[in-house]
From TrEMBL:
<dbReference type="InterPro" id="IPR011057">
    <property type="entry name" value="Mss4-like_sf"/>
</dbReference>
<feature type="domain" description="TCTP">
    <location>
        <begin position="1"/>
        <end position="162"/>
    </location>
</feature>
<dbReference type="InterPro" id="IPR011323">
    <property type="entry name" value="Mss4/transl-control_tumour"/>
</dbReference>
<comment type="similarity">
    <text>Belongs to the TCTP family.</text>
</comment>
<dbReference type="InterPro" id="IPR034737">
    <property type="entry name" value="TCTP"/>
</dbReference>
<protein>
    <recommendedName>
        <fullName>Translationally-controlled tumor protein homolog</fullName>
    </recommendedName>
</protein>
<dbReference type="Pfam" id="PF00838">
    <property type="entry name" value="TCTP"/>
</dbReference>
<dbReference type="GO" id="GO:0005509">
    <property type="term" value="F:calcium ion binding"/>
</dbReference>
<dbReference type="InterPro" id="IPR018105">
    <property type="entry name" value="Translational_control_tumour_p"/>
</dbReference>
<dbReference type="InterPro" id="IPR018103">
    <property type="entry name" value="Translation_control_tumour_CS"/>
</dbReference>
<dbReference type="GO" id="GO:0005737">
    <property type="term" value="C:cytoplasm"/>
</dbReference>
Amino acid sequence: MKVFKDMLTGDEMFTDTYKYEEVDDALYMVIGKNITVTEDNIELEGANPSAEEADEGTDTTSQSGVDVVIYMRLQETGFQVKRDYLAYMKEYLENVKAKLEGTPEASKLTSIQKPLTDLLKKFKDLQFFTGESMDPDGMVVLMDYKDIDGEERPVSTSQNTV
């Protein structure tokens, strides 16, 4: 299994067990699923539990959300205005550029402008997530919803520098 990590913090962002694709050689788009996890029991959204598994009236804890966010322990964060996100992104890219200095991967940083501009057109609809360490200098993943095969699915987007 291949684990994609933030190169600055080492936080695990996603693995190759999720369906993902590269966007303009600059970003990864990871397709997630809405799930509910109940005390080590996973129930996919819309699934019917069997009659044998009827609720016995005990207290259980459950967590609902996007599988990538839950399993990779991503932490929700936010930006009030687009200007704040752009300031963060400028600093993040400068830190990545410094780390990639002299490597072929450094050229990928220039190709991020177009897909990022397209994503930010829907700024108010986006959710933002950091890695488990919640390091303010680390990568921020953008979450949006897209129609995939006739179904509205959560899609997370991270920089192709992981």
